[in-house]
Amino acid sequence: MDATDKFIELVESICKRRSMYVCDGSFLEVSAYLSGFAHASTNCPLSNDGWKAFSRYVARHFGFPENYIWPYVIKTCSRDDDEATDRLLSLLVQFSNSARTHSYEEILESIQPRVVPEDAEPEQTMRQLLAALLAGSRSEIEPLIMDHPDAEILWQGAYPAEVAVQLSHISNSNRIGRVSDHAADGQVKLITADFPFPITVKKVGQQWKVDAAEIIAIRKRTQRAS
Question: What is the pTM of this model?
Fold first, then answer.
């Protein structure tokens, strides 16, 4: 049994019996445990540059920008700690086995991110909202978002028409990635360069609507700071 086999065996033990290894059995504590182990070990297959490569591997797998750290990505893309831990186990095993015979760059190049048609309904709704936010139009914004007591901050102020058009062109050129896909249950998470966090889109009746709570929170903080 080589170092990779031993590491995979350890990962499987921790992920399948979390409460035996970490205090509260949470995904984030498992992540911290494995991160500490990898950084302290001298012969772990994911030590040094391997752990950084794994973070890029996870980000690319889920369609995130590669500067996001892997615990955040997996947690964000999972419904609960059980699903997150299962995904961590699967990805760590795949990555570790690939690293036996391939360089990190070769592994990263082999990743095929989840592809969802840009004209899917949740993505269409997100595009429409991004354009409406630039215009600051209540009549356009309100039907696209879930109810929120502070929603009015989204249509307070608008860019000049010419600027809004230019920004809209830039926004439309950005890819929208689906980083968590539970469309069958009426919920997906999307990520776009317009915001530094995933946006949840939910199906309400027959229509997809954006949960704009995070966007509203940012605008409130900006308003208080100005």
Answer: 0.68
